[in-house]
Amino acid sequence: MAVKLKSGFEILRYSDLNYEGMTAEIQYKGEQVAQINMDKGLDNLEMEIFTEFVQSAFKPIFQLDDFLEAVSEAKKILREYEE
User: Fold this and answer.
1) pLDDT, position 17
2) Is this prediction's pTM over 0.90?
3) Core-most of 13, 28, 32, 74, by most CB within 10 Å?
């Protein structure tokens, strides 16, 4: 499942073998910038911020509100999984 936002962010829900629970990956312009996992439950989500990117010239610079919208959408996606 993928949700594309107008801001250039995309949220992908999947099961990552590094985590026990479902995760939501946040990408910006095709680069993975963060991953939220629900290993500790929906009320204790953890987010990993990435600093290494496929394209070496990529710089994760974006509007804060756009990023917060992407995080909020990722949380919604994970909530749907838990129901």
Assistant:
1) 65
2) no
3) 74
Q: Is 42 in contact with 82 (CB distance < 8 Å)? A: yes
Q: How far apart are CA 83 and CA 41, in angstroms?
A: 12
Separation of alpha carbons 39 and 75, rounded Å: 13
Distance, C-alpha 19 to centroid of its chain? 14
* Segment 4-53, tens digit of pLDDT: 999 999 999 877 667 677 889 999 999 999 999 988 888 999 999 999 99
For the chain, what are the domain ranges? Answer: 2-82
3-state secondary structure at position 82: helix
d(CA 38, CA 71): 13
